[in-house]
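Dear colleagues,

For the upcoming journal club I promised to circulate an example of a predicted protein-ligand complex. I picked one with zinc ion because it came up in last month's discussion. The inputs are reproduced below in full, followed by the predicted structure.
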Amino acid sequence: MDCQQFSNWLENRDIHDVSEADNALRHAQTCKECQAKLRYDEELDKLIHNALAKEQMPSSLSGRVDLSLDGMSAGRSRMSYRWFGAFSAVVAVMLVFAISLVFSPSLPTINDIGHHAIIDHTKHDDSILVVRDLDNIYQLGDLTLTREEIKAELPQGSTFVGARICPLGECLAIHMVLRQNDRRISVYLIRENDMDFSLSPHGRYTLKEGSQIVQFWKKGKYVFAMIG
Amino acid sequence: MPKLRRVDKKHFKELTYPHLEFLYNVALKYSGKPYDAEDLVQETMYTAFRKFSQLREESKCRSWLFMILRSHFLKEKRQASKRPILDDGDGYLKNVNSGSPNELVEKYESKMSKEEVQRVLRLIPEKFQSPLILYYMEDMTYQEISEYLDIPIGTVMSRLARGKKYMKNEITRRTKGTSVVKKIIPITGLWA
Ligand SMILES: [Zn+2]
Ligand SMILES: [Zn+2]
């Protein structure tokens, strides 16, 4: 085997017969240049291998999949699970897939919630909303607010499009989609206990990320977050 | 009836969720963006649940899910621009001499980030991309790749060879900052 044949073999190892490898490696042992090429090729291979290595998936992914599967059968039958039930299901899955989460039980901050709410609001598929009427919002969770109390918190003149449970990072929220003229508005309802911050009952807080603004306020044991 | 469906879903989850991380990582290599990758996995799982009855052998679950993910990815990609050619360049070994290959490699590692290498991967048509992902990320054998993609082993080998050559060329080119003389080879016709 000469140097040209060696290069040809090296660049096309996958399609050459294994038996040629012996020949090629023998040549590389006696030829400095080809040895350098072999080493260079192996290093490139290692570089690609390392760059394409698996990464840890986001801990919220299995929860997201759960929700889309649960939302799916709910379209056919009545919504049967409760907020807490859904939460424990997500936790069970997280136990399997994201052990790190179990060891770092830190609650999300207002920034985390805002960040995830913006992503959810912009990427949300409204075709898988589970509840289409505000009266049925109690199918999503054991809410202690009355329908009127919730209604009073929603922007005036907006219409209720639907709601479902969405994961905001590591905590679950009831996501209500509203429409006001051409505006699509998201209001998230999160239990205050699920977050690492407390709001004063009368204040409104805003958080800005890029061009998006999230407003936070509190009602009873719940925090509302609004975008849009 | 509802009870039966719930049992099905439980079984579905037990069978499929252990593969979520694999699916997410394949999706991430395809799309390059974590959020798009999550969307792709979510769509895949949604379709998989609807078609769960079509899974004949439970041991084939992983490759079955992979195929669903891949077809979702291709459907999305078809709407974007097509890339009908793969430029193999002139060979990445051309300028390697006996000097100091280690020095070269060090240079590459500092210049070529993981993201950059992944970007190079995304420039390649899917039929080369998928074997490369399964080969480098999953350390699959030719045989396994051939089963996952449902193509003959010979085709796996030639696609891997061309895909690797393209990547190594492109990495070499980008690191050196010199442009190699381009030789455009139409993909169809060369390797059936
Ligand atoms: Zn030689
Ligand atoms: Zn949502």
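Two points we might discuss: The pocket of zinc ion (ligand 1) is lined by residues A 3, 6, 27, 31, 33-34 (CB under 6 Å). The longest strand of chain A covers residues 159-168.

See you all on Thursday,
B. R.
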